[in-house]
Amino acid sequence: MNMFTGIIKGIGHVVKLEKQAETATLTIQSDIVTKLQPALGDSYAINGICLTVTSVQQDQITVDVMPETSRRTNLGRLSIGDRVNLEPALAAQERLDGHFVLGHVDTTATLVQRQLDQNAEVLTFELPATYDDYVVEKGSIAIDGVSLTVTATKQHQFSVSLIPFTLAQTTLADRAIGDAVNIETDILGKYIVAAQRKETHA
Q: What residue spans do the Lumazine-binding repeats cover (predicted)?
């Protein structure tokens, strides 16, 4: 199983996108490809989605998107020229700076508010009600692959606070009100909620 940290290593641009029903082939161009020189079969998180590299050409990688991925994520909304967050899979000897991210997106959330708070910007998202139990204040969450701390929660909504560095190094600065983002809730929370539900129904 591949792991990620939610610490974005680079920004890529969509240069080719072939869609057919709920599948797609996506080609991303980025300096990080030239720098890291991925091999065929390597895993990359693209906007937080763990995808397998099927082709490498100079500064470009190509990945295939299956129907399950299209249904749960915002990849179907991408267009040529769009920016995406990139992170290669975590190597065993690497430092873990963010939190454990699997690249298995749970759902999408909608940006409903951007608000300045001195040197930070607070982004508020609306989440499907079925995921309320998985998002807790001061817990971890991955938004388009970016590891962030939840700063506030209320029914069907949560907020995160971003410093200028995070905005500059990720695509979250591009997000406008109404945009959909990929959400991966904390894996530890998933197991806790699942265990509690099993006890309730035992």
A: 3-99, 100-196
Q: Are residues 138 and 196 in the same domain?
A: yes
Tell me: do 78 and 113 sit in the same domain: no
> How many angstroms separate the CA atoms of 189 and 195, rounded?
10
What is the mean pLDDT of the segment spanning 1-16? 92
Residue keyed to tokens 């057919």? 20
Q: How confident is the model at residue 190, as a pLDDT? A: 84
Segments forming the whole domain that contains residue 133: 107-200
Determine the residue type at 2. N
pLDDT in tens, 32-91: 999 999 999 999 999 999 999 999 999 999 999 999 999 999 998 999 999 999 999 987
Adjacent-strand bridge partners of 143: 146, 183
Same domain, yes or no: 27 and 79: yes
> Is 140 domain-assigned?
yes
pTM value? 0.92
Is 93 domain-assigned?
Answer: no
Q: What is the rounded distance in angstroms from the CA atom of residue 127 to the CA atom of residue 26?
A: 26
Q: The domain spanning residue 141 has which CATH number?
A: 2.40.30.20
CA distances from 108 to 41, 127, 167 (A): 26, 7, 20
Closest by alpha carbon to 179, among 82, 120, 111, 102? 111
